[in-house]
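Researcher: Quick test of sequence recovery. Tokens follow.
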């Protein structure tokens, strides 16, 4: 998170003093609406919708696409549990796709895993690392399968000059406290498609829109949930958005510096990245898990496998144990979903790669002078 301070405090205080805590209370455009306008123009999409979490954004994106029982959704095996939970909660079957050494979706495996039942592809830009979007979009477009970009961990990030979240049919952001910018909890959905936007808006507002002074939805209203964000979240995020690009630029400068030091040092291999010029993350990759483990022990670090917790599919208990809140809404108990598998055999390449990689990303505000010393001191 790129800092938080007086501007956020003042914006929250102003919101409370006005007594205008929800989107619909004010007579004029509030903070949420301003965030949405700013997000849409910064990311380069027609529509943005603030919601109460990244998980909500992912579920609403599935609803917007009409994903439901019997459908299959391809998800890479290295992500936060919310990505596969989104289709599962709607009765669809999430299927795992391996990652490659970029730590993002293995596009060859994606191509192998597509079946006639595949109704969406969820790619994840993990830890600010973009997927190979040119290849993903070529494969998806050729088959008419929509792509959802989970950019929860990559808000503001770029891929070949485009912003992450603007390339697929829908993009999803998280603003929880671990993310590039934060309002405590929060999220956003981005899209160019007015109908997908209306479906997401309908879902996020309990299928009502009765109080909306925005452009009215152009679809028949259907039953939804309440994923609304508050003006307090909007106030914080409005100020946080001003920190996004300067923070990312500062981070990229540090990653460039660390990368140059590692390359000059010559002892370690850097994991491939799909847009190295705008990288805000750095990972080392080793030939074997044992090499990585030995390096980590010498340097008091942890491999991605050891440190990533529930970002690794083996630790997604509700999927591994195939449990929903009721058996009759559990897609894994249906004929179509019975063979879904989340054990070591499901994505062995992913496990191997995560055991061979370690993040070495400098902090976004680390003094530049320290970076070279840190690399030189690696054992
Ligand atoms: C890749 C990814 N997707 C989705 C989410 C869910 O976001 P939230 O915690 O805002 O619901 C996260 C959050 O950690 C994430 O890292």
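Model:
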């Amino acid at each position: 998170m790129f800092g938080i301070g007086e501007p956020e405090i003042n914006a929250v205080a102003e919101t409370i003093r006005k007594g205008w805590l929800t989107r619909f209370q004010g007579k004029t455009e509030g903070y949420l609406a301003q965030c949405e306008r700013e997000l849409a123009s910064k990311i380069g999409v027609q529509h943005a919708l603030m919601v109460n979490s990244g998980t909500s954004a992912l579920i609403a994106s599935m609803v917007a696409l009409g994903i439901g029982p019997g459908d299959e959704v391809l998800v890479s095996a290295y992500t936060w549990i919310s990505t596969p939970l989104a289709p599962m909660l709607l009765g669809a079957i999430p299927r795992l796709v391996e990652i490659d050494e970029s730590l993002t979706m293995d596009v060859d495996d994606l191509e192998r895993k597509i079946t006639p039942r595949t109704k969406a592809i969820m790619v994840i830009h993990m830890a600010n690392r973009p997927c190979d979007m040119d290849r993903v979009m070529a494969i998806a477009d050729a088959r008419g399968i929509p792509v959802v970009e989970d950019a929860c961990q990559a808000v503001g990030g770029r891929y070949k000059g485009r912003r992450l979240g603007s390339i697929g049919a829908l993009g999803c952001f998280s603003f929880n406290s671990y993310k590039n910018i934060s309002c405590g909890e929060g999220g956003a959905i981005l899209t160019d498609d007015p109908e997908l936007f209306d479906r997401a808006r309908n879902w996020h507002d309990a299928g009502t829109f009765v109080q909306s002074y925005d452009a009215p939805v152009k679809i028949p209203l259907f039953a939804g949930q309440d994923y609304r964000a508050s003006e307090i979240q909007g106030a914080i995020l409005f100020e946080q958005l001003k920190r996004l690009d300067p923070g990312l630029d500062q981070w990229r400068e540090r990653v460039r510096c660390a990368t140059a030091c590692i390359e000059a040092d010559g002892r370690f291999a850097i994991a491939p990245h799909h847009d190295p010029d705008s990288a805000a993350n750095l990972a080392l990759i080793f030939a074997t898990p044992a090499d990585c483990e030995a390096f980590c022990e010498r340097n008091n670090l942890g491999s991605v496998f050891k440190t990533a917790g529930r970002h690794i599919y083996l630790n997604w208990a509700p999927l591994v144990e195939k449990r929903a809140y009721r058996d009759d809404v559990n897609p894994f108990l249906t004929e179509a979903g019975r063979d879904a598998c989340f054990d070591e055999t499901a994505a062995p390449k992913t496990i191997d790669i995560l055991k061979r990689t370690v993040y070495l990303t400098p902090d976004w505000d680390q003094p530049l002078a320290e970076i070279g010393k840190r690399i030189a001191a690696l054992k």
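The first strand starts at residue 47 and ends at 51.
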